[in-house]
Amino acid sequence: MTEPGLADVLGSAAAGVGVGGFADRFGFGDVQHAVVCLVDGLGWRLLREFSDHAPTLAAASGGPISTVFPTTTPSALGSLGTGLLPGAHGLVGGSFLLPETDQVLNPLKWSGAPLPVSVQPEPTIFETASRAGVEVSTIGPGSYKSSGLTNAVLRGARYRAAEDTAARVRALHAATSGAGRTLTYVYWAEVDRVGHESGVGSGPWLAALRRADALVAGLGEALPRGSAMLVTADHGMVNCPASSRIAIESHPELMADVMMVAGEPRVRHLYARPMHVEAIAGRWRQRLGDLARVLTRDEVIATGLYGPTDDFIAERIGHVVAVAQGAASLASVRDRLVSSLIGQHGALSLAELEIPALMFRG
């Protein structure tokens, strides 16, 4: 059996509150209330390096686990919510082509069409737990309540809007105050946002880390007896300075025969006519060298990075996939703002792949 990873977290929590069909791979035990708190962008290596700023997290029991590829929020939350790897749930990147509509979907900006259930039709763990009689809740910003991503990967839970740390603690208390068994998910975005804007290890980022630690401390204090909370993340982050930024549209040899660019600066999806795929991959390998690992669609699927991949989902993956290495970022005019940010993620460095799995008990 493989080591447990992010895709096993919510299923383990569901098993802890008695939902059949799931394995408790993180040791929740038989509990009345199971909580999963996800701190966006909090990589394990960052947490260890800056542990002095996060005493609650640093003192918790647990260790590192792996997130999914790409190491980006839509793919990771898809795996958290469904228990499947991206090759099965279909959220294959920060943005990607939907062949059925011939449009690029950015799940973080998703509202309206296409219908979430048409993009991600697999049942969520929340839906399964709710059918089993467990009260399920998601606690997060009100603006995310009706988003396409929420409805694609977290549907089935009651959404409890809470904007700050105190409100999230109150919402957890409300979610776990009933007599029945409960499964609750708490989301905190600030560490990721500040890391993108200011860089990991910066003064603003350290302040955000301290606030995340205070949130976890407050949630831990609010846990009722007979409960367990696992704190994890969706991915880590690396700093990519401007000097390591490659503006791909500024290099004609990189854009030759490329019909569409998607993904994000650390993982680019390139779409092209089949006859041009090998030539594009060859030019990207020659130009980028050690700055990126360049794979064709068939090659990236064969590596198993996406897990078992349905044929229908495979068509969403770029015909060529370029995964940045070191501190490189593959900037594009398609996402000019995102490409200009210092903090990035999506690739395969351990700083991006390793995330915490820390247990707290009421």
From TrEMBL:
<dbReference type="InterPro" id="IPR017850">
    <property type="entry name" value="Alkaline_phosphatase_core_sf"/>
</dbReference>
<dbReference type="Pfam" id="PF01663">
    <property type="entry name" value="Phosphodiest"/>
</dbReference>
<dbReference type="InterPro" id="IPR002591">
    <property type="entry name" value="Phosphodiest/P_Trfase"/>
</dbReference>
<dbReference type="GO" id="GO:0016787">
    <property type="term" value="F:hydrolase activity"/>
</dbReference>
<protein>
    <submittedName>
        <fullName>Unannotated protein</fullName>
    </submittedName>
</protein>
